[in-house]
Amino acid sequence: MRQRQLVVRALEIKPTDGYIQDSLSWVYYKQKKYKQALQVIETALQTVKNEWVIWSHYGDILDKIGKKDKALQAYQKALELSKETDDKNNIQQKINLYTSR
Length: 101
Prior knowledge:
The protein has six helices and no strands. It has helices at 2-13, 18-30, 34-47, 52-64, 68-81, 85-99. Helix 1 (2-13) packs antiparallel against helix 2, helix 4 (52-64) runs antiparallel to helix 5 and helix 5 (68-81) packs antiparallel against helix 6. The longest helix is centred in the last third of the chain and has 15 residues, at 85-99.
């Protein structure tokens, strides 16, 4: 609960910051409030279009609400944008789960 309050306070200060919006969506995700998480992260993606971690979070949220095709697309976008080998490997593992089903 405290984490959500801190993120909401940060959004009051910088309401259009996509990175803070991503943080709030992740708080909702962790609380299993996937519809709220989806709404917030879609707003984040309007302002921060080229951040792999936001795309990865978007994929995780889409997966939880059953939008598997869109989740796979989000993971592929995250993979395209990521630079670090560990990040690429983690995203590739998510993609592999989809393609092996």
